[in-house]
Amino acid sequence: MRPRHACDDVRRAQEFRAYVAGAGGRLLHTATLLTAEPRDANPRAQRLLTLALARTYACWDRLHGEDPYDHTRRYLMIRFALSTLRYGGRLPFRPPPGGPLAGLSPQERLILVMRLHEGIGEDQTAALLGLPTERVRAVQNRAMAVVLRPAPGPAPALGRAGTVPS
Amino acid sequence: MNRSNREERVRRLMVTGPPALPPDLAAEAVRRGARVLRRRTYARRVMWLLLCAATVAFTVWALTARPWVEPPSGTTPPLTGW
């Protein structure tokens, strides 16, 4: 029994390391966009990704042909959504915002990253987040408007926290 | 500016500057994942052990108590007037 298990462990770890070496960079980029951290100082994104990858490693033998990238990405998104829910959309500490999505709320970042960076369909995004499709579309439109605003000043970003989409 | 054009611009904005992957990230994930696997194995073992113990206990109890045998009646009226 014991040698067979050890052999399984070694094989699984080897496959997993190869997978992380291939897909880790892109996943970390996605996580860093979600947490809106600067690209050189992203401890929160790294922690998020580590937990999602650990989950994928634990389920590695039961994926049965499912794409591990899909698996990790789904848990990354779910974990980020839950962590923002827990703090009511605001983080208890204020990290220095960085990256292109710094002026957005967590939900706007999540939807923008899922739809545009990861290319997940509108219906699938809505199903994963438990929101109506129209709401996903509205949030995405608003987030794109904020990101593409020609002169992004600090004042509108601060005033938008409690606004209702019109 | 139409929608697909705007989407393309936002997409291009997000693609710039991917962060460098820290070298110990995979090792840390393997360590945590292996811990989860070990805990699952342990939990499964404990569950089987409990199940076996419960089966043995039930069998022993059934063989000693024999609940299917009709108990001797304790409410027979006394025979008097013979």
UniProtKB/TrEMBL annotation, chain A:
Ranges where the RNA polymerase sigma-70 region domain occurs: 101-145
Pfam families xref list: Sigma70_r4
Domain of life: Bacteria
Protein name in UniProt: Sigma factor-like helix-turn-helix DNA-binding protein
SUPFAM superfamilies: Sigma3 and sigma4 domains of RNA polymerase sigma factors
Species assigned in the record: Streptomyces werraensis
